Amino acid sequence: MDKNDTALYAFRKYADTVLRAAYACTGDLHEAEDITQDIFLSLHTSPPDFRDDGHMKAYLLRAAVNRSVNYKKSFRRSRTSSIEETGDIASSEDVFSDRSGIRDIIRQLPEKYRSVIFLYYYEGYNIREIAGILGKNENTVSSLLRRARNKLKIRLDEEGYHEDR
Hints:
mainly alpha; Rna Polymerase Sigma Factor, Chain: A; 8 helices; 0% strand; globular
């Protein structure tokens, strides 16, 4: 593939996935859109060589997670407030909208748990692949996933969700 076409190809194929990953980590749609735009802009200006589409997707997801973590640590985030916090109602499409409210509960989990849940359940990666994307040990990812499930179960029980078995 021509290096000039890499960013366009990646955008067409993975833009929604990168946006969802950034949103899962930040909880802010507008920041997730900015992060997504930055990722594809940097991919356009200096595209790395990818072995295959799986490598490209992993690279983009890792970039989304890294930039989301950087955003959460940033001075800008600590000195601004969202429209919702000031009492105004945002009228933007929620990329995680669903009627059950489970995704809202997932969004309330700490970022380290949200990103693992997102990659495992929404993107379908296994623990080994998640470890590679996040740059963590497989045992660490497994522990994070187990803890995330436990926290999610507790929150779902508190919210009145019951399993039908």
